[in-house]
Specification:
30% of the residues lie in helices and 33% in strands. The protein is an alpha+beta fold. A hairpin with a 2-residue loop joins strand 1 and strand 2. The protein starts with 5 loop residues before the first helix and ends with a strand.
Length: 159
Amino acid sequence: MTAPPARLVLRTFRVLSRLPAGRRVFSTAYAWQAPYFRSVRPRVLVLGPHRAEVLVPDRRAVRNHLGGVHAIAVCNGLEAAMGALATVTVPRSHRWVPKGMEVEYLARADSDVRCVARTSPADWAAAPDVPVAVHATRADGTVVVRGVIRLWVTERPAG
């Protein structure tokens, strides 16, 4: 299955965002594109070239033995945000795949977690190795995870 064009994804997000429960509908469809994301039920809050924000709701299924949102659930949210950003930023003539993730766990996530992925046009000049800055914050604004997800971006083969 090929990914839908970035214009269609962005236009769909913008249209649905204006409707009641539209972001929830978009988020559900987005999670079906990468089924593993469904485990954290990401909600896409912000989507555009070079920026995406995803909310990972605090619920029993993503908590660790200490009662906080599990670090790997947070990383799944960060990867969901990065994937959304890459989907609408990488040109249709290219493809991308995550190459690696480096993260620091800074504080306990004891609420819903907002996962943010950002790049700048200058970051893409380093292609094929593109760094995507990521961080996650809990409801009070405290950064709980900070890091970089590296993408490998190459031209699609002809045909």
